[in-house]
Every structure is written in C-alpha cells, then in structure tokens.
C-alpha cells in the first residue's frame, strides 16, 4: 500500500514538473515573440531616420573619444543597430543596459564603437543573440550608429565565460578585439562571448 502511494505521489509530482516546464517554454517563446516585434518596430524607426541622412553628411573622420550620438525612440535611447547576416539578425542597440531593457533589444554594456571597445549584451532569445554560439572565426557583423557611420567586424575569438568575471567581458591584456557580443548560454549559468576585430 505504501509503495502504491509513493508511485501515485511520484506521478503527481512528475505531472506538476511537466506542466511547469511547459509553462516556462511557452513563456520563453512569448518573450522572444514580443522582443522580436519590438526590435523590428525600432529598427524601422532607425532606418527611417537613416534614410534621411545623405552620404555627404557622413564624414570619414576619426571619431575616437567622441560620445556616441543617441536617438530617442519611445522611452529609450538607441545608439545604432547591429546586424549579422549569417544569423539573419538586424537589431537596435540601446544606449545603456538593465534587465528590463534586455527584454526589448540588445544594450550597450560598456564602451564605444568609436573607441573600438564596444560591448553589447542581449538575451539569448532566438531573435536576439540566441544564435551567436553558431558563429565561427572569420564571420562578419556590421554596426551602424544613428548618424549613419558604418563599422564592419570579423570574428576573432569565441569563448564561454563565467558571469562573475565581469572584467573579462570588457578587458583583454592583449586588447586584440574591438567589439564584444555576449549572451547567456542555454542553461543560463555561463555567457557565450564573441569577440570581433574591426576591418572597416
């Protein structure tokens, strides 16, 4: 009799865990869906503004040390957009980060594209940085600021970092990269980190 009760209890608990797992999966898909739609709307706004900038307005000059310009869209400031053709993503980048902003779009974690030390964080939504673990050395990314300055990058390093080692996201003894993208691994305990060198 006792064994039968234990078996029934195990079945009930298994059912509860299965139900909770299903709820988590549905929630993740919903969050991804919302983030994709919001990011697409913001990209449309940025693209509309960029289409009004003529090429003569984009001077080829050294921007080192200059604060990156911002564009206000809704309640948030954006510094530009990141695109990775291999992953089929084109995403807005918010000026600064917090956990709530990450639910909308990738965010600047630190640095500047002008100073060649930009670090961008995003959730691992499929529509955001969920696919960056599929990048390989030699793959490309582009960053366009809100004034139309284009920078192109090539992957030079891919690593998985412990999230407590914050300094490793933003600093290298060799300083051999100019752009870093990172996101949580699938389990959330580590960070997939992709380093790029500027090529243009």
TrEMBL record:
<feature type="transmembrane region" description="Helical">
    <location>
        <begin position="12"/>
        <end position="30"/>
    </location>
</feature>
<keyword id="KW-0472">Membrane</keyword>
<protein>
    <submittedName>
        <fullName>Sortase A</fullName>
    </submittedName>
</protein>
<keyword id="KW-0812">Transmembrane</keyword>
<dbReference type="GO" id="GO:0016787">
    <property type="term" value="F:hydrolase activity"/>
</dbReference>
<dbReference type="InterPro" id="IPR005754">
    <property type="entry name" value="Sortase"/>
</dbReference>
<dbReference type="InterPro" id="IPR023365">
    <property type="entry name" value="Sortase_dom-sf"/>
</dbReference>
<feature type="active site" description="Proton donor/acceptor">
    <location>
        <position position="123"/>
    </location>
</feature>
<feature type="active site" description="Acyl-thioester intermediate">
    <location>
        <position position="184"/>
    </location>
</feature>
<dbReference type="Pfam" id="PF04203">
    <property type="entry name" value="Sortase"/>
</dbReference>
<keyword id="KW-0378">Hydrolase</keyword>
<keyword id="KW-1133">Transmembrane helix</keyword>
């Amino acid at each position: 009799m006792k064994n039968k009760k234990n078996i029934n209890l195990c079945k009930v608990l298994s059912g509860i865990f299965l139900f909770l797992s299903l709820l988590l999966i549905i929630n993740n898909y919903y969050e991804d869906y919302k983030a994709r739609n919001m990011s697409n709307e913001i990209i449309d706004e940025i693209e509309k503004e960029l289409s009004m900038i003529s090429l003569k307005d984009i001077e080829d000059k050294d921007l080192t040390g200059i604060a990156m310009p911002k564009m206000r869209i809704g309640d948030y400031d954006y510094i530009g957009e990141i695109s990775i053709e291999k992953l089929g993503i084109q995403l807005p980048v918010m000026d600064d980060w917090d956990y709530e902003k990450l639910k909308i779009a990738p965010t600047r974690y630190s640095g500047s594209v002008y100073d060649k030390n930009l670090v961008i964080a995003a959730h691992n939504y499929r529509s955001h940085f969920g696919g960056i673990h599929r990048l390989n050395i030699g793959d490309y990314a582009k960053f366009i600021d809100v004034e139309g300055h284009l920078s192109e990058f090539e992957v030079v390093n891919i690593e998985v970092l412990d999230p407590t080692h914050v300094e490793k996201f933003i600093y290298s003894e060799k300083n051999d990269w100019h752009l870093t993208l990172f996101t949580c691994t699938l389990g959330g305990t580590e960070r997939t980190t992709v380093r790029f060198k500027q090529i243009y």
